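Need a sequence for this fold. Nothing fancy.
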């Protein structure tokens, strides 16, 4: 088998990925699909949701120009919500701050972001519940969802009671630790909701802390007054994974789903977890896994991922040093 038929240097995991496949839902796909899944793109049916019709058209056109990257790539100009209906979208001075929720003016001003969150326009926007949209479009067996919609994440998950409650294996969600918008759900509410469905918080992808002045950054030294201070924890992306014992007990075709969960764990560098998951697989897939030295395959993957991690840390360190030197000059 050639290198092109390997996943992180492993022929076993490439074979498993080819056999079971993956299905990704990217809610808020502006700028491109979730990069975390790029190593397994050839095995992944990717579905993006981008309410901006111009951006959605651009994404679909780009997918047609690069047809070999993902197994299948589609983007829909759809906004998701808890129920079908209409909501008010508040467009802010900084487009990335736009939301269906009302900005918490007092707090964002205190945090030095008042202008970013200034509402410049309001418009009515139709929304659909995730379950209804998936049923209409024959999206019946999704495995992973990324959701980042400025405070509307929990409403979208609640609107997917069937797809989230019965089929998803993992979720990468933006969660909040400060109410940047009025009545915005916080991390605790997201965690409690997902815990009730058999998920647990497996990892922090990143954390964002804000200082009360810009361009000062959390934990960094800059050239202005009060050059150093830690900032307030504002938001984070969290990886939620479904407990593999829950999958074995409650899901249809659990072995296929368990292998998919193991592949997702590997994509996020959780190799110890992947071992535990694969050891619960039964039937023909278990035979496939036991036909090779599983630990040797994972050892290869581990070394590949570690080299990638070292390179990534070196790039981050270099960027940090450049910013620091610039602030001291």
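Here you go.
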């Amino acid at each position: 088998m050639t290198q092109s038929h390997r996943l992180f240097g492993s022929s076993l995991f490439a074979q498993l990925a080819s056999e079971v496949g993956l299905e990704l839902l990217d809610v808020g796909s502006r700028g491109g699909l979730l990069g975390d899944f790029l190593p397994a793109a050839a095995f992944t049916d990717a579905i993006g949701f981008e309410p901006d019709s111009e951006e959605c058209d651009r994404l679909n056109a780009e997918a047609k120009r690069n047809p070999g990257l993902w197994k299948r790539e589609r983007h829909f100009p759809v906004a998701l919500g808890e129920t079908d209906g209409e909501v008010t979208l508040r467009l802010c001075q900084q487009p990335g701050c736009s939301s269906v929720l009302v900005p918490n003016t007092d707090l964002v001003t205190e945090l030095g972001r008042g202008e970013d969150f200034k509402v410049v326009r309001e418009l009515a926007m139709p929304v659909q519940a995730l379950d209804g949209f998936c049923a209409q479009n024959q999206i019946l067996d999704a495995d992973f969802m990324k959701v980042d919609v400025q405070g509307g994440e929990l409403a979208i998950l609640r609107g997917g009671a069937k797809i989230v409650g019965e089929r998803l294996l993992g979720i990468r969600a933006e969660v909040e630790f400060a109410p940047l918008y009025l009545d915005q759900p916080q991390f605790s509410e997201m965690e409690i909701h997902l815990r009730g469905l058999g998920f647990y918080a497996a990892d922090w992808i990143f954390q964002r802390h804000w200082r009360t002045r810009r361009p000062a950054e959390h934990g960094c030294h800059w050239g202005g007054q009060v050059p150093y201070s830690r900032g307030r924890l504002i938001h984070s992306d969290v990886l939620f994974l479904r407990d593999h014992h829950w999958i074995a007990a409650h899901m249809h075709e659990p072995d296929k789903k368990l292998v998919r969960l193991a592949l997702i764990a590997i994509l996020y560098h959780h190799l110890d977890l992947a071992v535990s998951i694969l050891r619960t697989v039964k039937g023909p897939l278990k035979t496939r896994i036991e036909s090779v030295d599983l630990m040797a395959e994972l050892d290869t993957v581990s070394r590949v991922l570690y080299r990638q991690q070292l390179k990534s840390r070196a790039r981050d360190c270099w960027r940090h040093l450049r910013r620091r030197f610039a602030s001291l000059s």
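For context: The first helix runs from residue 11 to 20.
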